[in-house]
Amino acid sequence: xxxxxxxxxxxxxxxxxxxxxxxxxxxxxxxxxxxxxxxxxxxxxxxxxxxxxxxxxxxxxxxxxxxxx
Length: 69
Known about the structure:
Elements: H1 14-19, H2 30-35, H3 45-58
C-alpha cells in the first residue's frame, strides 16, 4: 500500500510506550527486516521477509497468508 510520508505516532505518550518496552517507532524496509539479528521480540525474518517481499513486488494477495507465528 502506498501512502504519503508521515511520522508513525499513535495516541500513547512516550511514558506509555516505554512501559510497553516500545522505544522508537519507525518504518522498516525489507532489507531492515531481512537483516535484523537482535534477540528482541520480533517476527522471525524467515516468517515475515518472504511474504513482505512478495507483497512489495506483486501487490496484495487475494487471501491471508498464515505466517506460522
